[in-house]
Specification:
The complex is a heterodimer of chains A (116) and B (117). Chain A is an all-beta fold. Chain A contains no helices and 12 strands. In chain A, the strands form 3 sheets. In chain A, strands 2, 5, 6, 10, 11 and 12 form a 6-stranded mixed beta sheet that branches. In chain B, a hairpin with a 2-residue loop joins strand 5 (44-52) and strand 6. The chains are: A mainly beta (116), B mainly beta (117).
């Protein structure tokens, strides 16, 4: 079974600075996706960034980028120029591809606080 | 564009009462649908997923059940709620069909907060 581990329950960063959230996973699959979701106080899950395992190039979305190390099974999220609106729970997620079904597993989350 | 709806937004129910949470998706056809539960301060746990009408797969044994009476409708139910059923329930969808492509991103609804007393 696949597991996702986020070893940092809470983190804080000063506004405009950079922060990195860690995520590791365990799988025997070769083809899969990795995601980072943001959950603000409204509780809705918002997709931040995704990475396909078959791509070596790290995904980037504006101020958000990942460091994907497939051999090490590591998938960290870097937030540059942190903004107050980045304050939220961040979840790392793993999805294997199995036929017509997409089985997604989430980590326990990291609570990020951006301080003014 | 596609949208996903969940209702109610908040629900307070006594132990032993029935439950029905509804999720609907607009703007797509034959989606894969998912129900997740998030306990307070914890990550998401996949409860059920469906790849088509009447097709339900359960991830964990529990007090809940799911049904998909229509292509874009997914219902989470219980005959008798337990205290442990309290939590935040999220419905999600992905594009259906096979193939390893960019369509597997999950899109979440706004969620339902359930409190069982």
């Amino acid at each position: 079974a696949q597991t996702v581990t986020q070893s940092q329950p809470e983190m804080s960063v000063q506004e405009a600075e950079t922060v990195t959230l860690s995520c590791t996973y365990d799988t025997s699959e070769n083809n899969y996706y990795l995601f980072w979701y943001k959950q603000p106080p409204s509780r809705q899950m918002i997709l931040v960034i995704r990475q396909e395992a078959y791509k070596q190039q790290n995904a980037t979305e504006n101020r958000f980028s990942v460091n994907f190390q497939k051999a090490a099974k590591s998938f960290s999220l870097k937030i540059s120029d942190s903004q107050l609106g980045d304050t939220a729970m961040y979840f790392c997620a793993f999805m294997k591809h199995a036929g017509n079904n997409n089985d997604m597993r989430f980590g326990a989350g990291t609570r990020l606080t951006v301080k003014p | 564009s596609q949208t996903i709806h969940q209702w109610p937004a908040t629900l307070v129910q006594p132990v032993g009462s029935p439950l029905s949470l509804e999720c609907t998706v607009e703007g797509t056809s034959n989606p894969n649908l998912y129900w997740y539960r998030q306990a307070a301060g914890r990550g998401l746990q996949l409860l059920f997923y469906s790849v088509g009408i009447g097709q339900i797969s359960s991830e964990v044994p529990q007090n809940l059940s799911a049904s998909r009476p229509q292509d874009r409708q997914f219902i989470l139910s219980s005959k008798k709620l337990l205290l442990s059923d309290s939590g935040f329930y999220l419905c999600a969808w992905t594009q259906g069909g096979q193939g390893f492509s960019l369509k597997e991103t999950q899109y979440f609804g706004p969620g339902t907060r359930l409190l069982v007393l």
